[in-house]
Amino acid sequence: MTASAATDARAVPPPGHERRPPGGLDDSALSHLVGYAASRAALELRKVFARRMAPFQLKVAEFSILMLVASNGEVNQKQLGQALDISPPNLAVTLDRMADRGWVERVRSTRDRRSQHIHLTAEGESLVQRTRRIAATMEEPALAALSRAERALLIELLSKVAFARPGPG
Question: Would you call 118 exposed, middle or buried from its count of C-beta atoms within 10 A (0-12, 13-18, 19+)?
């Protein structure tokens, strides 16, 4: 089998997993791009997130901030912005909104008075516990076509892309 034939064979989905392009359009000019496939998958996963987190009126960025603050003892605004690729002004607005809702508070560092850490309030901690339980299974319907091993591999591969250090050039 030639390299071209091997590539073509991998592009054909297995039976039962036929591609369903959005709007019935021919997306073959895009289907070979990882970014396109990742974007399409992200759109579906965001829809799932929106449905499951609607009762909490929680956005993806807010959920991510809550989980990072809950998992990291002393986290500051700069670290959150870097981790989530949110600009300082946008993150400040988001944190202000979250503070207004009673989920987080800014606490001056005892080691460096110039620095503020982001802490969960009691209400924020409660929200983390409730949404963490939902998040544990919310993606199941969207990922039903994948085995557990395939899901783990997908996360591993996407993480490699997301956190790769670009080389020179």
Answer: buried
